[in-house]
């Protein structure tokens, strides 16, 4: 099989998102139509917290495997973005505030009482994928971030307009991601395009991105099962 050009590989990666990114999942579609009940929105926020808190963990694993100081210098910013630093509380704290804005008390978020078993398995599978696979595949699995910014900006509008009961100051998390996610995606894509040496590497990167889409899809499958549509939310 021939090596794909950068344009072809980029197109193949984008195709994965067009087919399988979590914005196509019925739970997500209903969220963006304004049709989720308050309980369903709360469940989404509380379960996504388990994903959020594991992002810097998997990024620390990737960081430890990156071969050069230059790449580590860039990658480390992701950990800072989520864990925070002096003067910047970071994304995990912002997500806890999103929880408060939808009515989840901080301690309920932190003790993970709402996290569903299948969500835990899916997120742990993502972290383990980054731990066990070569670093380039782990980087490729982060490329769902290519598709996130458009979705996140839509989500901010949707939350403001269709879920007026959500306190607007809870949306800060999403605002920060609007500039962080494109920067991260550019770096990830640059690495994948530069470091794939043969078609096998390229196919493995495409498969890694498919796997990651399935992680996000599984989160929403679990939520759909545990929080089915009620007559009222339908
Ligand atoms: O709200 C979303 O739809 C969404 C999706 C994704 C994603 O596509 O993985 C991420 C995020 N948000 C996000 O906030 C985030 O920090 C993030 C990090 C990563 C990653 O895999 O490294 N994905 C995502």
UniProtKB/TrEMBL annotation:
One Gene Ontology term from the biological process aspect of the record: thiamine diphosphate biosynthetic process
Tell me where in this chain the Thiaminase-2/PQQC domain is found: 11-221
Give the pathway.
Cofactor biosynthesis; thiamine diphosphate biosynthesis; Cofactor biosynthesis; pyrroloquinoline quinone biosynthesis
Write out the entry's keywords from A to Z. Oxidoreductase, PQQ biosynthesis, Thiamine biosynthesis
Q: What is its EC number?
A: 1.3.3.11
Q: Which Pfam families match?
A: TENA_THI-4 (PF03070)
UniProt keyword Transmembrane present: no
Q: Which is one GO molecular function term here? A: thiaminase activity
Instruction: Using the UniProt record, name the top-level EC class of this enzyme in a single word.
Output: oxidoreductase
Per its record, the protein catalyses:
6-(2-amino-2-carboxyethyl)-7,8-dioxo-1,2,3,4,7,8-hexahydroquinoline-2,4-dicarboxylate + 3 O2 = pyrroloquinoline quinone + 2 H2O2 + 2 H2O + H(+); thiamine + H2O = 5-(2-hydroxyethyl)-4-methylthiazole + 4-amino-5-hydroxymethyl-2-methylpyrimidine + H(+); 4-amino-5-aminomethyl-2-methylpyrimidine + H2O = 4-amino-5-hydroxymethyl-2-methylpyrimidine + NH4(+)
Outline the subunit composition: Homotetramer.
Function, as annotated: Ring cyclization and eight-electron oxidation of 3a-(2-amino-2-carboxyethyl)-4,5-dioxo-4,5,6,7,8,9-hexahydroquinoline-7,9-dicarboxylic-acid to PQQ.
Membership in a protein family: Belongs to the TenA family. Belongs to the PqqC family.
Could you identify this protein by its name? Pyrroloquinoline-quinone synthase
Organism of origin? Cohnella zeiphila
Identify the coding gene: pqqC
